[in-house]
Amino acid sequence: MAKKKFTKQALSQWMKGEGPDSDVVISSRVRIARNLRNQPFPLMASPEQSSSAMEQLLCVAESGRLNGLGKIEQIRMSELTELEKLVLVEKHLISPSLANESRNSALILSPNEDISIMINEEDHLRIQCLSPGFQVREAWETASKIDDIFEEQVDYAFDEKHGYLTSCPTNVGSGIRASVMMHLPALVMTGQINRILSAVTQVGLAVRGVYGEGSEATGNLFQVSNQVTLGQSEQEIIENLFQVARQIIEHERSARGKLLDESFLRVEDRVRRSFGVLTQARIMDTKEASQRLSDVRLGYHLGLLPEVDSLVLNELLVSMQPGFLQMTFGEAMSPEDRDRSRAELIRSRLVTLS
Known about the structure:
- By secondary structure, the chain is α+β, with helices and mostly antiparallel strands.
- It folds into 2 domains: 1-11 and 27-173, Glutamine synthetase/guanido kinase, catalytic domain (Creatine Kinase, Chain A, domain 2); 263-352.
- It has helices spanning 3-8, 47-62, 82-90, 96-99, 136-153, 185-189, 193-201, 234-280, 286-301, 310-319, 322-329, 335-350, and strands spanning 25-34, 73-76, 106-109, 115-119, 125-132, 158-159, 163-164, 176-183, 205-208, 221-226.
- The radius of gyration is 21 Å and the shape is globular.
- The chain starts with a helix and ends with a helix.
- It comes from Cohnella terricola.
- Residues 24-255 form the Phosphagen kinase C-terminal domain.
């Protein structure tokens, strides 16, 4: 079945190439929220109404108008197991909200998983485009083209004063959420992170964890995104995020240089100690694994661990998560079993590099 290929591999094809500024920015994402005119929004729709909205949007995909994306796959959420949904969340292909909603919801995926279109999540339509490294402008261009394709075929809920209407008031207006996933270990280690993040929030941006709102920023990974969608054009939103992210990248690189100049031996000891633990440990929980992989990633980009493969580090971000672990080992696991299997998986991927 088509869905299997999306849950079998931890690393999406789009993540196998290093994008610009990938020493700091893991990935860039743009998500567009849209709803159908004269249709109740998903949270208020009856089963019949949500089914009608889903079929209407799937028809756009079936019409062939998205053929430029490659051989797209349509997956109805009712076809997926709870574990398969969890894996798709861990790969950032669907939101936790869509994973919890199986009634008349669907997913459209491009072959290399850089485009994910969610149907009947919080809104009727969520168009998500992902790019490796710092490519938020490129992700926006792709998302905008897909949005135009749908808008040619369906009537969006739109108000002349407020713009595109959405279930959540914070998305009203442009309906755009643009974000960059950033690895900021040096800012954390030098004690600058709170000052930087405080400045970011003052210019209309939000900082969250790896899985968005409500998630913890584990492994020194931070998701920086726009907070305002009303009263700003799409271009203004993208450019504001771009310029602020560019400044954060420079601050992180400056902090890394400071660490090398002032604390070289301590930094080298830290990254090699973490690498040693990861290649020897028999039990490893998610939080510790995230932190030690963050140290190793920093060591790789500072040239202290040239033997490490950056693609392996990207892969482990997903493959060590609870859902993917259970998918890999083919069984439901207790937390203790997962900690043991996580350590085994990490050892198997890193030990050949040491």
